[in-house]
Fold:
Amino acid sequence: EIVLTQSPGTLSLSPGERATLSCRASQSITSNYLAWHQQKPGQAPRLLIYGASTRATGIPDRFSGSGSGTDFTLTISRLEPEDFAVYYCQQYGHSPLTFGGGTKVEIK
Amino acid sequence: EVQLVESGGGLVQPGGSLRLSCAASGLTLSGSWMHWVRQAPGKGLMWVSLLSPDGTTTAYADSVKGRFTISRDNARNTLYLQMDSLRDEDTAVYYCASFSKGWGQGTLVTVSS
Structure:
């Protein structure tokens, strides 16, 4: 099973700042089958990025994904008030599919 | 616009069964890898099961293998999750998802006596 480790656990930032979230895999992820999801309290997750760097439909371009192999990054270029949430990375190249433990982006 | 709408959740006793449904619009399920994912109260996301576009490949998390069955009705464009021998630890919100298109809103399953 591929273990995904997200860091930091919590990121305290102000609106307008840049957020950099990390996701490290215990082994290389096939074909960069790595996704990022956003979840706000009481809501379903929302797909942000798939294939490590492809934005899902309707996702603003302030969200970008990068990386390959075992190291991946989600960057939010300028935080908007609605971006404060929990972010999960997930690999879907190997069964069982696995999620990271999440990074909470909170208002400083 | 892709819409995934889950239904079928509810309260069930340990050992009981439920069938979840996920009705899709704006997306043809027979052309997509589809998944069930669950989230226990206050916890993170856990993948449960997948079904391939051609319907020949399924996979399950170890914790549900032998108890849950994923399937699809192409005519209704609906994904299912048959859940048998339910346990307390299966209590969660269950989501259907395509990891290139998006998530449904979820349906709550509570297993309790």
